[in-house]
Amino acid sequence: MPITLVDPIDKYDHIRGHQQAPVTLLEYADFESVYSGQAYAIVGQLQQDLGDTMRFVFRNFPLTYVYPHALPAALAAEAADKQGAFWEMHDLLFEQQYRLEPEYLIAFAQVLGLDIERFIMDMTSEVVAGRVRRDFVGGIRSGVDQTPTFYINGRRHNGSYDYQVLKTAVNDAANRSPRSVKRHKTAGAERRA
After folding, report:
1. DSSP line for 46-94
2. Most buried of 90, 113, 162, 189 (most Cβ within 10 A)?
3. Is the pLDDT of residue 177 over 90?
4. For residue 36, what are the contacts with CB-CB under 8 A and spacing of at least 6?
């Protein structure tokens, strides 16, 4: 099983946080998975607590053989992205995980003020399906077989994903990061000036 991320982060990825953060936490997740739902709250707390130390990347990994609403939810998130509302839809889907039937996905798009006709058209488009497929295939190539699966600075995190374990792993990665070292040197130079 690969221990590193096969497909590098690129302009098509969904990224939250400072571009120059010393640590990138990437997650392959399923909107219907209870475990991904638990991880959603933990990642949100990490983002809040770690600020510019960490950026977060989300990739779709719908486990359709387990969760019947996983793929439609992923398509809804990507359709919302076409109108600039990926993260808003991402948050709604996790916060309303028990409501992922088609009528709820449309209701979420309405709550977000999206153009509903366009949203429905995008949800059923090959472009959006291809975007979800791209994430999924990249996950398979990287050895993902469950959700959530995390990578920290491109290396698979095989430990628990509870808050303290992930925070320690992110902080350890930040301490090893050349960006972190550069930021610390710059900060020290500013204090001496």
Report:
1. HHHHHGGGEEEEEEE---TTT-TTHHHHHHHHHHHHTTT-HHHHHHHHH
2. 90
3. no
4. 27, 29, 30, 94, 147, 148
Say how far apart CA 42 and CA 128 lie, in whole Å.
Answer: 28
Q: CA 169 from chain center: how many Å? A: 17
Residue 57 confidence (pLDDT) above 50: yes
Q: What is the CATH number of the domain that holds 49?
A: 3.40.30.10
Q: Which domain holds residue 145?
A: 14-168
In a domain, 193, yes or no: no
Indicate whether 188 belongs to any domain: no
